[in-house]
Amino acid sequence: MIFPKRLSGQKPFSYPFYLFAVLTVLIGILLINGYFEIQRTRSQLFNILENEALVVIQGLEQNSGNLIAGLSQEHPPLSTVGIVEGSEDSLSIEDQLIERLINLALQMDQEAVQKKDDPQFLKDRIGRSGLTQIFFLKTDVDKDIWKTLPIALKTEPPFFQKVLNGKTRLAVFRGEGPLRKTLPLAVAVARRLGQGMILMALSFSEYVSWSRQIIIQNLLEDFSGKGNITYLRVEDPKGMVIAQIGERFFMGLPKNQARRDVHSGQSNLFWITGKEGDFLEILRPFSPGGKELGVVRLGLSLKEVNPIVDQNQKNIILMSMVLFGLGMISLFFIFRLQNRHLQKMKEMENQIRLKEELSAMGQLASGVAHEIKNPLNAISLVIQRLEKEFVWDKPEEQKEYDRFTGIVRNEIDRVNRIIGQFLLMSKPLDTKMEERPIIEILEYCLEVMEEEFRQKRIRVIKGWEGKGPIIRCDRFQLTQAFINIFNNALEAMPDGGSLHLTVKQFRSSEVGVQSEKKPLAKLTTQHSELSRDFVEISIADTGKGISSEGMGKIFAPYYTTKEKGLGLGLAITQKMIQAHEGTLEVQSIENKGATIIIRLPLSPSE
Fold it and tell me: What is the CATH number of the domain that holds 443?
């Protein structure tokens, strides 16, 4: 982006700073708006997922509450609300209880063999099983163990007699009537790896607890794979698992301190990033039938939500970029328009100031010219008298004498013209055109400056032969222009140097052809290239050159780097070249010299 530059002389006002400040505020607004828009979208999606989870939990509480309500002392276990004794649902629950007891017995049998039926191990293992009534019996009934058996199992013959005798591998005891309130279920399983059998009996509280776990587990299984549910877990107040599905998801979750709270709705909501992906976890008290049983953790996958959030985020970023681009373009044009307005105002101020300066300069010049012209006229009269009264005997001496007096007379005329040009600085120049060879004018200027070149040890290198091309010009104005340039070259080479002058002629068909130029540090062109036949005069010095800062001001009136200079030399020179429909170009490399290139149209006769 191109920022408008501060105008020369203008009060400090940093456009880039204000532009960047406004853009920074705009970026901040867009970022804040985008952030809150993304958060709002995510919050809405989380609210939808939370409502879905609450519906699942409420359904789970209602269904499990109806089934668990019958597991109490007031109702027989197989006569729960909605489940009559002997119904398929109640038998299904008991069958699952029996299956769990059988699996536990087979597991304990394998562990007991590995520990060689160590009594202490068996005691510890029974304590970890969660049951209070587990017995290892051999073929011959151990009287000590027999004494500890529940009374309901001490019947003749006991229900596990055939298991002890090896006639069957499984026997099941179901309590009936009032007996079910004390011993609702018992299972005897023959050992596969050891001797005897393992007897397991459930007390009423254990029966209710295990049945409740099965009921809840069955209900959880119904939700497996439905919707966004990835895991569902019910825990008791001690944190023990009552039932769960999606164990692999739950085990892959990070610790609680790594979870991010999500403030949404009335639940404890957590946004979790686990090995299996992102989840939204709802933690709620679990109260089937109005009785708090523990807590439920329900995890919802964000696989379907994340693409929506990502797409929304991309849309917001894209829209923000579009708005930022439009805002930046608008601000840029606003600053450009403002800069143009200020620039026009500044130009008007400069024009007014320049007119005032020119007016003051004209008034000053008028007074000075009046005072200077009188002594100049007197000097001119003296020169004329000297030319008439002093006659040399030898023709060569007379010729040399006439040449010097002619130079003095011409210079007096030139001073008069300078005064006139000084007066007419703000007006179009009055040119008296005549056809003259350009080299004749250059030779005359070099002759005038010859003594100064010699004193400053400046070697002049001419790059022409003959009289060169003819141009229509005011020879006095061009003489003044070239002398101004030569004076600048003299002052740029105080310790001596070289001044290279070349003259080349170009046709309109050779507009693209240019003279050889040095590498430029900066280029100032006051007019476009001429579209007709022209002559190019190149004046190159080996002086100190022009600074980068000065390149932009060298044609400005009163700009000078000299202690006693007026700063009008190049300004007047430029005006004179323009009056001849020519162009003036300055090339410079600081500390390596400067080159002035003047292009003037050729005479039609050429």
Answer: 3.30.565.10
